[in-house]
Amino acid sequence: MYQIKTYNAIAQAGLDTFTTDYAINQSDQPDAYLIRSVDLHPETLPKSLKVIARAGAGYNNVPLDRATANGTAVFNTPGSNANAVKELIVALLVIASRNLMAAANYSAKHTEADVSQRTEHDKTKFNGTELLGKTLAVIGLGHVGSLVANAALNLGMNVIGYDPYLSADAAWNIAKPVQRAATLAAAVKNADYVTVHVPKNEDTVNLIDQDELAAMPATAQLFNYSRIGIVNNAAAVAALHAGQLAHYYTDFGEPQLADDPQVTVTPHIGGSTVEAEINGATQAAKTIMTYLETGNVHAAINLPDLNVPFNAAYRFTVIHENVPNMVSQITSKLAAANLNIATMANAAKAHTAYTIIDVDDLDHQSSQQLIDALYQIPAVARVRLLIHH
Q1: C or N: which end of the chain has fewer Cβ atoms within 10 Å?
Q2: What is the 3-state composition of the chain as percent helix, strand, coil, each rounded to the nearest 5?
């Protein structure tokens, strides 16, 4: 029986995905965490914890270094809320182009008896523009960005994309009419609207800063529905007040953005739909089960991809540091235990490596002795024995 501990409110459909081999919140020594927004940085990760799956795209609430040292695989659920974010960006494009916020605020404040005549006289203040023929720059063409780009094309917009890290698989999701810019500055040069959809890492913090804002037309409107810190908010406010940017929409509030008529802040609702929460929870549950039952890894944050058909009777998985001579040390332990390897695979990601070894014959005593021997290798963080059912 595998033990799962949940944090936050996890969609019931996700919990229902687990089979009867899994118990939910019945142990203080869980095999897996299924989380959403809980900050795990202050937490002590139990040694029993083999996997953390976050039902969402971001993972800055997970202490990756400590998880890796603990031998804990970390997964997110990329794409599970992509449609939700895309629909919100489409809505905001319409809101921005038609001045709907200002128009609605005006109507809410003017309810006098002559409201019809007054609004008829004043409505020209809120004249907007159409999206048809306007230019949208999409920075980041992954799960969300590709959907936004394609939706904007369907609205009749000209779309320019910029993504230096675009994978071949992701490129298939982008419609051919999307123009590709060689640089970020080139992407935003003639944009009426700029929207950012990139992961947060050391390369993307302050991706939109003073120079990038200066490259945009003064009439451009900027959207950050990616992560806080992707846009330098101080630089954005300075650009707004200097007349170098028309409006800034973001899902991530900070004090410096408060009470600014040129800034619209939404309360981190980009991926907050019923459907997105179900998608994220279901995807996370399936990821947990695949990893715990087979040891196979696809798109983990801290482990390399390794997918080996589980055809043998037994499987050892080893998470270890990516240092020389590890494979030979591991195989020597199996040889000392007089075990014949049926299948073996190894891969590395940055400073961490992962090894899968399948064997056909094994008894309980020798298996525990082998696990103990593998843990004696200083660079080993986690050893697991899986039985093929």
Answers
A1: C
A2: 35, 20, 45
| Fold designation for 304-389 | Alpha-Beta Plaits (3.30.70)
Superfamily classification of domain 82-265: NAD(P)-binding Rossmann-like Domain (3.40.50.720)
For every residue of 112-144, which 3-state class applies, written as one string? CCCHHHHHHHHHHHHCCCCCCCCEEEEECCCHH
Residues shown for the chain: 389
What pairs with residue 196 in β-bridges?
139, 224
CA separation for the pair 127, 97 (Å, rounded): 9
Torsion, Cα 145 151 152 158, to 10 degrees, reads: 90
Q: What is the pTM of this model?
A: 0.84
- How far is residue 272's CA from residue 275's CA, in Å, rounded to a whole number? 8
Strands 73-75 and 221-224: unpaired
pLDDT in tens, the chain (389 residues): 999 999 988 999 999 999 999 999 999 999 999 999 899 999 999 999 999 999 988 898 999 999 999 999 999 998 999 999 999 999 999 999 998 887 777 777 766 655 555 555 555 666 789 999 999 999 999 999 999 999 999 999 999 999 988 876 677 778 889 999 999 999 999 999 999 999 888 899 999 999 999 999 999 999 999 999 999 999 999 999 999 999 999 999 999 999 999 999 999 999 889 999 999 999 999 999 999 999 999 999 999 999 999 999 999 999 999 999 999 999 999 999 999 999 999 999 999 999 999 999 888 778 999 999 999 999 999 999 999 88
Q: Where in the sequence numbering do the catalytic residues fall?
A: 227, 254, 268
Nearest-angstrom CA–CA distance, 92 and 112 = 29
CATH 3.40.50.720 fits 1-80+274-302, yes or no: yes
In terms of Cα–Cα distance, which of 248, 240, 204 is closest to 224? 248
- Three-class secondary structure assignment of 23-56: EECCCCCCCEEEECCCCCCCCCCCCCCCEEEECC
- The segment(s) of the chain belonging to CATH 3.30.70.260 are 304-389
Q: How many CA atoms lie less than 13 Å away from 376 in the CB half-sphere?
A: 9
